[in-house]
Amino acid sequence: MALAFDEYGRPFIIIKEQEQKSRLRGLDAQKANINAGKAVARILRTSLGPKGMDKMLQSPDGDVTITNDGATILEQMDVDNQIAKLMVELSRSQDYEIGDGTTGVVVMAGALLEQAEKLLERGIHPVRVAEGYEMASRIAVEHLEHIAQKFDFNVTNIEPLVQTCMTTLSSKIVNRCKQTLAEIAVKAVLAVADLERKDVNLDLIKVEGKVGGKLEDTELVYGIIVDKDMSHPQMPKRIEDAKIAILTCPFEPPKPKTKHKVDIDTVEKFQTLRQQELKYFDDMVQKCKDVGATLVICQWGFDDEANHLLMHRNLPAVRWVGGVELELIAIATGGRIVPRFQELTPEKLGRAGLVREKSFGTTKDRMLYIEQCANSRAVTIFIRGGNKMMIEETKRSLHDALCVARNLIRNNSIVYGGGSAEISCSIAVDAAAYRYPGVEQYAIRSFSEALDSIPMALAENSGLQPIETLSAVKLQQIKENTPFCGIDCNDVGTNNMQEQNVFETLIGKQQQILLATQVVKMILKIDDVISPSEY
Ligand code: ADP
Ligand code: MG
């Protein structure tokens, strides 16, 4: 420490060790990093599995989120540590690629870090640990292919797909109606899927929510929902085989501009003007009828008199529809947006098999359903729920389910869940360890132990004795060679995941192991942490 003076004679202190203090090197750096990673994993560990806990997160402006989704928890958590941020990224990349398994991947990475710490303490070089992990992960991924099963489904028999989505949903807050939601998710995915190319464009599935009603009322609409109603309460609420005119021009007589002057000094003149205005609008309605429109969707409004006339002439209309929705309707119904009234022709009309208005609750809450559209495979999942938080969480859970269904269409291999795949891999990796003569052997064996932490966490979260349960299942797997025995989280009475119908996708599980290994290797190779010095 030294005392110095600046040009104004004010004293200040120079701390010589300052640079060293904000810098960690060697084993200290690795240990600090491992601890940071473990801390994040510990938070998520209790959320894993069907009996996992949920987290409540409050944002700086007071919004509350309740969720069970690993990626969302980490996204909303305000982490400061750089290594912790890597774990957040890890969860995000699993979410991005696969959609499900975001909690499991972090728990797995945490377990690998924990094992690595023990190895480092025994004096094994971090690079050797990293290499051992790499070998072990390859063994595990290969073994997964070995125990994976093809599973057949087709458009008429969707039950297997529904079962897999139900596994995903069973760990979420919405598990009360997982059957309904899983069926909706599968039907939605199949509606937009291209089974020949084995591809699904999830953008075509629109997820909408409205507060009110029950979660059970959530429905799949083959078409589009618009938050608008018919302009007149006496207009028909249901139009079959609708031919829709989509207008972005005003649907009313032109107003006199300020520059023009209309002198009305007699009753007759006023009557004429009125008649003319009426006729003008009548002509417009007639024109719509002539081209064959049975419904008018208008971006602009029209006044009450016009509204009355429309009702009278039996031409249902919807007014004040937003531009985005108008575009969606145009795409789905194969219609054209008509910007000038004169341009309205029969070819420009959109077609929909059914347009209906549906009302909700006791309020005047109505929505317009446009279904059986001509052109598009677009579907909407319409979520109902008691409050906004519930709807948001349902959206996230459905996202996971949609992703799982999509992954299965891309690749229909599955492995069994409930930790059974991990236990089986653990046995395989452990058995393979003897084939490696070097120090890596220890790392490979540690990897096998880390794999056990997923079933352990599942057991712990379900209130079972973790070690006893795990060793019993493991023994059973080794004795009977049954890679589908896992943790009976829901206390069904059997730990045969085949019977319980608990599957996960093969690619999802492989991705979890690969991603977790990559991140842990990266963390282990950092031996110098240089942060900007603080003032
Ligand atoms: P993630 O975000 O990783 O998907 P989840 O909370 O969804 O985390 O938990 C997934 C884990 O729970 C998987 O290992 C899965 O096999 C297991 N699991 C899900 N449903 C069941 C069940 N009914 N019985 C046993 N395990 C289950
Ligand atoms: Mg899940």
TrEMBL record:
Belongs to the TCP-1 chaperonin family. SUPFAM superfamilies: GroEL apical domain-like (SSF52029), GroEL equatorial domain-like (SSF48592), GroEL-intermediate domain like (SSF54849). NCBIfam families: chap_CCT_epsi, thermosome_alpha, thermosome_beta. One of its GO terms (cellular component) is chaperonin-containing T-complex. InterPro entries: Chap_CCT_epsi (IPR012718), Chaperone_TCP-1 (IPR017998), Chaperonin_TCP-1_CS (IPR002194), Cpn60/GroEL/TCP-1 (IPR002423), GroEL-like_apical_dom_sf (IPR027409), GROEL-like_equatorial_sf (IPR027413), TCP-1-like_intermed_sf (IPR027410), TCP-1_chaperonin (IPR053374). GO terms for molecular function: ATP binding; hydrolase activity. Component of the chaperonin-containing T-complex (TRiC), a hexadecamer composed of two identical back-to-back stacked rings enclosing a protein folding chamber. Each ring is made up of eight different subunits: TCP1/CCT1, CCT2, CCT3, CCT4, CCT5, CCT6A/CCT6, CCT7, CCT8. Interacts with PACRG. Interacts with DNAAF4. Interacts with DLEC1. Interacts with SPMAP2. Heterooligomeric complex of about 850 to 900 kDa that forms two stacked rings, 12 to 16 nm in diameter. This is T-complex protein 1 subunit epsilon. PROSITE patterns: TCP1_1 (PS00750), TCP1_2 (PS00751), TCP1_3 (PS00995). The keyword Hydrolase applies. Its main location: cytoplasm. Keywords: Acetylation, ATP-binding, Chaperone, Cytoplasm, Cytoskeleton, Hydrolase, Isopeptide bond, Nucleotide-binding, Phosphoprotein, Ubl conjugation. Component of the chaperonin-containing T-complex (TRiC), a molecular chaperone complex that assists the folding of actin, tubulin and other proteins upon ATP hydrolysis. The TRiC complex mediates the folding of WRAP53/TCAB1, thereby regulating telomere maintenance. As part of the TRiC complex may play a role in the assembly of BBSome, a complex involved in ciliogenesis regulating transports vesicles to the cilia. Molecular chaperone; assists the folding of proteins upon ATP hydrolysis. Known to play a role, in vitro, in the folding of actin and tubulin. It catalyses: ATP + H2O = ADP + phosphate + H(+). It is found in: Cytoplasm, Cytoskeleton, Microtubule organizing center, Centrosome. Gene3D superfamilies: GroEL, GroEL-like equatorial domain, TCP-1-like chaperonin intermediate domain. CDD domains: TCP1_epsilon.
